[in-house]
Write a structure and sequence with these properties.
Number of helices: 15
Structural class: alpha+beta
CATH architecture of the largest domain: 2-Layer Sandwich
Low-confidence stretches: none
Shape: globular
Distance between the termini: 20 Å
Number of strands: 18
CATH class of the largest domain: Alpha Beta
Strand order of the largest sheet: 15-12-14-13-17-18-16
Length: 463
């Protein structure tokens, strides 16, 4: 227990008594994320300003109390689990859009703002914020920054780091620091703003964000195409790109995932022997979108597509996307627990990766469901396990080890957008090497000399 009565009183004075939780039933709500692991904090505080966070971090740093910043707690790697207790800083009260500058195409927001809310508000003004993680209906911009979140539109538009211009950050020692810019470019000193993207709350607490916006596309069309197998679907992806078409999204779904989401595909004709689905979206000027749709439909047929559905109206497009976003929760039909990995390989290696995953599935007798972003090679690998089955859990680590080793041999990465957190920290050195790992640990301690910020995350053995 890090929090005695005097420290509790100090934090209550900063945030208000009603904005500090210590009852066990309340703490439980902030003890876990999508991994299902649970560890209780000592208290949960709900600050509403950088000043309040600064005061809390000064107390925490003085007394070496762990601090875990938290958005929606929707991450897949244990990044917000308070493994060493201490204070959870729940940023849900800091959820405002502070500014939308239409002329300079810029938004200034707080970290607790939900991604979808930002998208809706800027689109009302003819602007566009592309990063769209599958969790966008509930994940926060601060959480997206912490993990470096991507999403289906990453292939054409990039990921969160590509839209972060500047940040206001409270350092672990309590200083409030501005980093980055509000301008289209700026090269004064190290780019610390982008450096913090993907740092998983280990270097400080982001309290304000300057985000680049772009013009909203005039028109969008969505295509869902069914193929007999993944090889033909992957070849279609290559054909589309060779035709100099860069879809806004280019998703694939494997046969197991298709079985799980069939109830959501009632409006799309999916042949019985479908082995893979491509979900593609093109956007831009009306004339361009029309031409690209016709070309993609033709390329799908040439590459063996059995059926292709095309939707132009928002309601019809959303029906197709509902199926894609339903995959993750639908997997419980197969097993009560999933271990969700987000490996990324050169997109031409997707068929080889799927073949490798089929081998691993057979070798370790663990059902594996795959879907993801075919455009950028990001494969969401779901190992379906029952944690009460000790035999299958013994096979899990060797299976993951083999998957990661083969991905790295293909020139890939063990995490495309979920981050490292707890779940992947033991594997990080395999990818980045000992020298880089030691350097990153030194950087962490330069920011956070007392190691209070989200300790136990990213590094293995834990810093």
């Amino acid at each position: 227990m890090f929090i005695d009565k005097s420290r509790l009183k100090e934090i209550q004075d900063i945030c208000g008594v009603n904005n500090v939780l210590m009852d066990r039933e309340d703490l439980l709500c902030y003890s876990y994320d999508a991994t299902g692991q649970k560890m209780l904090p000592d208290l949960v505080a709900f600050p509403e300003s950088a000043s309040q966070i600064s005061q809390i971090l000064k107390i925490a740093n003085t007394h070496k109390v762990p601090v875990v910043p938290r958005g929606a707690g929707s991450g897949f790697v244990g990044g917000t689990i308070p493994v060493k207790g201490g204070i959870v800083l729940a940023l849900s009260r800091m959820n405002k859009i502070l500014e939308i500058d239409e002329d300079n195409m810029l938004a200034v927001v707080e970290p607790g703002l939900v991604n979808e809310k930002l998208q809706q508000e800027v689109e009302k003004k003819g602007l566009f914020y592309p990063p769209d993680p599958a969790s966008m209906k509930f994940s926060t911009i601060g959480g997206n920054i912490a993990t470096g979140a991507g999403g289906p539109r990453a292939f054409k538009y990039g990921v969160t780091k590509d839209y972060v211009l500047g940040l206001e950050v409270v350092l672990p020692t309590g200083e409030i620091m501005k980093m980055g810019v509000r301008t289209a470019k700026g090269v004064v000193g190290y780019d610390l703003a982008r450096f913090l993207v993907g740092s998983e709350g280990t270097l400080g607490v982001v309290t304000k964000i300057n985000l680049k916006l772009i013009p909203k596309p005039e028109m969008t069309a969505t295509l869902l195409s069914s193929f007999p197998n993944m090889d033909q679907a992957a070849q279609c992806v290559t054909s589309v790109i060779k035709a100099k078409i860069i879809p806004a999204t280019l998703e694939y779904i494997d046969r197991r995932a298709i079985e799980c989401i069939k109830p959501y595909l009632v409006d799309a004709a999916i042949p019985e022997n479908t082995g893979a689905i491509l979900l593609m979206e093109v956007d831009g000027p009306k004339d361009t979108v029309g031409k690209e749709v016709r070309k993609i439909e033709s390329l799908c047929r040439e590459n063996g597509a059995m059926e292709t559905s095309t939707a132009f109206e928002k309601e019809e497009r959303e029906k197709l996307w509902t199926a894609r976003r339903a995959i993750s929760p639908s997997l419980r039909k197969i097993s009560p627990t999933k271990i969700n990995e987000d490996i990324t390989v050169p997109r031409t290696k997707i068929p080889k990766t799927i073949q490798m995953l089929d081998r691993v599935e057979k070798k370790y007798s663990i059902p594996i469901v795959n879907f993801g972003h075919a455009g950028d090679g990001n494969v969401h690998v779901n190992l379906m396990v029952d944690q009460s089955d000790s035999d299958i859990m013994k096979r899990l680590d060797p299976a993951l080890e083999e998957i990661f080793e083969e991905v790295l041999e293909m020139g890939g990465t063990i995490s495309g957008e979920h981050g490292i957190g707890l779940a992947k920290s033991r594997y990080i050195e395999k990818e980045i090497g000992e020298t880089s790992l030691e350097l990153q640990k030194r950087v962490k301690l330069a920011f956070d000399p007392n190691n209070i910020m989200n300790p136990g995350k990213i590094f293995w053995p834990n810093v």
